[in-house]
Amino acid sequence: MIVREQPFLSLCLTAGYRNKLPVLRNTFLQMRRGEILGLIGQSGSGKSTMALAILRLLELKGGRAEGSIYLQGNDLMKMKERELRALRGKQIGLVLQSPLSSLNPALSIGTQLREAWKAHATGPSFDCQASIAAALTNVSLPAHEEFLHRHASQLSVGQAQRVLIAMAVLHRPALLIADEPTSALDVITQAEILGLFARLNRELGTAILYISHDLLSVASICHRIAILHEGDIVECGSTEKILESPQHPYTQKLIGALPATPSRAKAARDGDPVPQRPVRAANGKAKPTVAYEDTKGFARRQ
After folding, report:
1. In the chain, what are the domain boundaries?
2. Which of 219, 225, 233, 237 has the fewest CB atoms lying closer than 10 Å?
């Protein structure tokens, strides 16, 4: 007898905003336990709407969602607000795209971390300090008093994003929703944050729904990719399958729009064989190479 594993997260949603057409229309998506799933789509495709719907916070933006959202077998759509408050932050963490504006400018970093801990835990101050120190260490930030006394205005954008991630993983949630978490970062800091997400996934076993419009960043850390287009998931599969053999015209258009490195672009222009090299993912493993020259003579890459 074959026993099928229950999806870690399963949803089927129709969602939208007052006096407007639905943004999501019977949109179906499933996640596996402990995986990083990339959700790709252009601006306005409904990515953030889905994130808010999973957290049951869409109403705060004047929206409404109908359907089902099952997390580890529990239907979130049937939960009362008191139950949802206990779930948010403890079972589901959220990392937003604007770290400096997401932190309270009037409170120190230490105060905000302590408030986040107290929201879902009780115990002596020693336990709180130990949990905060562990969370900061997990995101490669110092845990000494001088840093904890800083305010958001005294942090770089990269440090602020790491603080938000530390808050999100403070209670070791089963699911972390990262909504465009690198869009405000420079390319070097972006690579560091991507590596951080991959490490947290490996070491803590946290499932991550990584939402982005940047296919390259998604491909560098995600096990699977789901393509959201015009309110529906038009394609979903392993990263390798999506990149090497896209089926839907929109996915093909996304792959075709990927930039080329200068050396490969020159090779394509000169008619030489396009150099191909394995791309290293954040987990250190080599990603399959999907660079090739298309029929128009342009080099495309992973």
Report:
1. 9-243, 259-302
2. 237
